[in-house]
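S1.2 Input.
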Amino acid sequence: MRVLIVGATGLLGTQIARLLEAEHEIVTASRKGSDVAVDLSDKASIAAMFAQVRKVGAVLCVGGTAKFAPLDTLSDDDYAFSLANKLMGQVNLVRCATGHVDEGGAITLTSGVLAQQPMVGSAAVSIVNAGVEAFARVAALELHGRMRVNVVSPGWVAETLEAMGKDASQGIAAAEVAKAYKRTIDEAITGQVLLAAKS
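S1.3 Output.
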């Protein structure tokens, strides 16, 4: 199967590609350094990516970002950036995928733990993550029989915690998180939010 990984040059994207490459033909997409260039915040760029890639059996998105900052410092632009990037970027990924994903193929989006477990500074991120999950549930209903739509909520990734100077043992290794994305390809599920877990 041809699998398109959006955000492929990041930590999770790299681990997902490594996990899947033995069984699937991997096509990578990101802002730079991949098979195809894409700007997730630009719908025209997403459409151009699909026009170049043509048909795939699955799309896995680990791209997109949102602003993390205390509530009283978040500006209108911070919210607009977060919504346009990680939320609408993934919404538009699904919208533009029509005709490019094999019938019954999978699209997997990424939310995050802050949708259910907010913390100080996560207002914009929590909105975006919760929105991604709500959208995926609706899209799964409306695209039933055409495409399967799921979400992975990675939780705290150990390598990210380590890079932040925090206790990496409180997170899940990126290689383990990648297994949740593989499940969305291997299993006939749709409308689900998968939580990454330590094995």
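S1.4 Remarks. The mean pLDDT is 94.
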